[in-house]
Model the fold of this input.
Amino acid sequence: MNQKLGDRIDQAITKRRVLRILSVVDDEEDYFIGIPVKRSRSLVAIHRLIDFHFDGYTCIRLKDVTNVRRSRSEVTQERILRSTGEIQNFDNPPWLRIGSIKSLLSCLKERKICACVSSALFDVDVFAVGTVDALREGSVVLKSFDAHGDWIVPKHEIKYSDITEVTFEDEYSTVFHQFIASENLRKKGS
Done:
C-alpha cells in the first residue's frame, strides 16, 4: 500500500468518512465498506457497514489494500447514516490494538470476543469462527464451532502469517456464539 492510500485512510478515520477499501490476496479481489477506525503499519480496522447499519469490525492487512474509494455511493451512504442517526452508533473501541495480528487477537482473547478468522491465500484453507484459546509464538489456537453449532475438535491452530482477515462484534459471530452458549446451558440442564 502506498502513502497516498494510507493518508486517505487516516483522513477518513479523523473525519469519520465512509470508504470502500479494496484488497487483493493471491489474485482474489474483495472490498470492505465502512468507516476506518484505526490503522497501524500492518493492519487497518474498519467499522463495517451492511445495509446502512454498522455490523462489527474487520481488520485486514495493509499490504493487501490496492485502492481506497470514496465515490458518490459512499457519500450517499454516509448521508443516510447521518440522517437516520445511525452514525451515533459509530464506535472506535479504545481497547483495540492492531499493531499486529497477534496483538489484535490478544485483545479479543482478553475480552472473550468471538471472531471470524480467515485466509484468502490460495494454499491455505482457513475460515474459523470462535474464541481465542491460546496465543503462541507464531500461531493462534481457536476454540471454534462449525455451521451446525458444534464445537470443532481438535481446536484450530492458525499461523499469524496465514491470517488475512479478522472480523468481530458482527451479528453473525456474536449471535451464533450466544446461541451455542445458551444451547450448551440447556443441554447441561436436561
About this structure: The first strand starts at residue 19 and ends at 25. The first helix runs from residue 3 to 15. The chain is about 30% helix and 35% strand. Strands lie at 19-25, 28-39, 43-50, 53-61, 65-69, 115-119, 126-135, 139-145, 156-159, 165-168.
